Amino acid sequence: MRMIKNGYLYQVTFMASVFPVNCYLVEEEDGLTLIDAALGFCTKGILKAAETIGRPITKIVLTHAHEDHVGALDSLKMILSEVPVYISISDHRLMNDDRSLDPHEEQTPIKGGVPKKLKTRANVLVKEGDFVGSLTAIAAPGHTPGSMAFLDLRSKALVAGDAFQTRGGMAVAGDMKPLFPFPSFGTWSKKTALASAKKLVSYGPQLLAVGHGEMVENPVKRMEMAIGNLERKLR
Length: 235
What we know:
Elements: E1 2-6, E2 9-14, E3 21-28, E4 31-35, H1 43-53, E5 57-61, H2 67-70, H3 73-79, E6 85-88, H4 89-95, E7 124-126, E8 131-132, E9 135-139, E10 148-152, E11 157-159, E12 164-165, E13 171-172, H5 182-185, H6 190-201, E14 207-209, E15 216-217, H7 220-234
Parallel strand pairs: 4-5, 5-6, 6-7, 11-14
Antiparallel strand pairs: 1-2, 2-3, 3-4, 8-9, 9-10, 10-11, 12-13, 14-15
Helix pairs in contact: 6-7
């Protein structure tokens, strides 16, 4: 487990040199907000990171329901039983193995796995514009129909889940990078992901934090280049 601090945000990374899986701890006045729950074996590492910071985890927020973002959720909730769990309405359906799509959505199969034995369900459903402490929720569908990003209004740090990756090169969800192709394999709609990427860059983030790869400071130009790369491929 590796932890890197940038402002109010701590990146907690597992398997950093092989298959990096990130989750994040956000400092708030009342404690820490955990964004994503990594893989099943990551529970002790997440709790150790919070212990090292010296603050309790008071909220668990999920960018989406894929197994590398919810893997430790059940075991965390066994210890943090009173801590609320947040997810979007659409990915709450995915958590319940409902892979149906709304009429306005691209009618292609949802990809990626949700742990079949996952017992925990979110008890707070978030939508665009909702606040979770200092974070504002931004709908960022594409990787999954209900993917969310979270912008810290204090620092303009954007935790984007798998809407972007930085491992293997900066890329929008669905744009396959040979050195790390896995996020593209799990992406539901490249067209929708591209629209969400344009939306996210419009917020002018000062820091980009993603599910797979290093954090990037002053990321806008690199995000715009990644958007251009996928646009050209989809023409």
